[in-house]
């Protein structure tokens, strides 16, 4: 093999002007993995009650949990009358246990929303001395804005980041912020596109000393490892870090206000904003953003109302005290194999729990608007994302026993687990209900009071009590929507932005009906996800689809036929028992039987935009977009024009580097250090260099190189020179 390791190690970049460095000088900050089996070092900070804990927080929690328990107890009494009115039976007890879990779940959401309703009406949801309006506070420390990205379209990611930059610039406090694009990209073509987009961003903003780019060549521990790498290399230079997602957009004044609040409260470790979903065009995405904007504030105000200083972290659109994160949020690897072992997948909940364990306050401020994100465009895309989230949340079962956690932090993890476990429990409840009806239909046991009998006792269904339980359950389920509608009456701008009272009401009904039909499909999707995880299947790590491209009916049918078949079988089973049972189950059966057209309809951009033109499913942010969203939209339109321009730069990495000497020089200046003797040998690099040497042309080289080999040679000076020498 005609490749020298010395040549690989000692080759120097091509001569040329030296570009500005991609990164600032390193400022390391220690971040050790936490021991989950022993108490943390809190460095003298209190644990039970923190300086920023709201007064009478215990009373709010008593109302939420006590009210949920009372509602659950009453529901159990009623459901027992439905199935066990003539005595206790095995099936009746199973139904009662399942109902108790499910009833507490929806009752807890209901009582939390009652607290949220009070907070909304009183215009709460702030705290920490934060004001919605008025002069912006003056920042005194430095904050790093962190944009992690993984195989995303870099022009799209940086369109949002540029909007954030320009919005902060408009506040007059841009000098308090640096911006880091933290890439974990493995696609070599996207890697070079990221560098080009980064350089253009820098040039357009004169940001050589403020905007930085770092790509990890070994993306260990996914997003948590990405942020951890930044903390250990640059963390000590910044008092705060603002974490974003690839689709995040945040208003500059909001950023300044929450950053100032952290500066003014030394014991606060994290402040989470409420990201509002925007930019939806398909029917599914528009339903998501409508629900998030109308019901979301009620839910968020509710949980913030009783979480207090024991809030949660959603992984992005939050400001974090760097010291607190480094000191307490280092994540260990869990024992065992994936999906339950290995690195912690859903890191955000755990990081917040560990910081609170260490005596740092975690707050949420849903009363401030100006924080935005996007929704996946279809049910299929949500299912793919949910499979990863499901695994991460179920993995928290191994963290619940961590020593020193606050009980509310454990509730956060149980809630995350419950959000996926409830689907198979609902399915079991449904199937056991059918079984009881089936037994009642085919078996007719005789009852002789206290006299002995050889016949078993089967539970009987009381239809009157069943109707009352159904009405009560639906009332609790739909009450948050009614409360959100009432709360919107007190917000004239939001009401006007949603099309007025009539269109808002019609939109809520429409979203509820379509959402109700989708619910049984989502139940089966999540149930299959839970089962696959219990069987030991790992979700992997794939980039999130954010484009609303058209999906053929054939593709939809291939993915959803199984739900239709299950619905038909369930319908036959229900009809064979009784027509009454069939009619009771109609909402579930309709959603499953119509799974294919529902998935196709909700993934349609034409339907979504048609409803927008009709004034339905509107939100304030699209009818009267704030300046930050106008900036983001303008940047997105500009990138679309540039992408379709005749002189658009090539997307393929080798072609892009060969076309632009400046891009090549910048790329070479940011390559990783040369391999040291004795360190592991990169087989992809060695094989890739051989293929480049033997290839007669660039086209042949591209055909022969694997994705990993291409990335390896792009990260090596000799590989870049060999690439440059190839014939086009």
UniProtKB/TrEMBL annotation:
Q: Where in the cell is it found?
A: Cell inner membrane
CDD domains from the UniProt entry: Glucan_BSP_MdoH
Q: Locate the Glycosyltransferase 2-like domain: which residues?
A: 242-436
Q: In which pathway does it act?
A: Glycan metabolism; osmoregulated periplasmic glucan (OPG) biosynthesis
Predominantly, its location class is membrane
Protein's membrane topology: Multi-pass membrane protein
Report whether GTP-binding shows up as a keyword of the record. no
Q: Which UniProt keywords apply?
A: Cell inner membrane, Cell membrane, Glycosyltransferase, Membrane, Transferase, Transmembrane, Transmembrane helix
What InterPro entries does the record tag this protein with?
Answer: Glyco_trans_2-like, Glycosyltr_2/OpgH_subfam, Nucleotide-diphossugar_trans
**Residues annotated as transmembrane:** 58-77, 89-118, 425-444, 464-486, 516-535, 556-575, 581-603
Family of this protein: Belongs to the glycosyltransferase 2 family. OpgH subfamily.
**Record's protein name:** Glucans biosynthesis glucosyltransferase H
According to its UniProt entry, this protein's organism is Gluconobacter potus
Q: What is the lineage of its organism?
A: Bacteria, Pseudomonadati, Pseudomonadota, Alphaproteobacteria, Acetobacterales
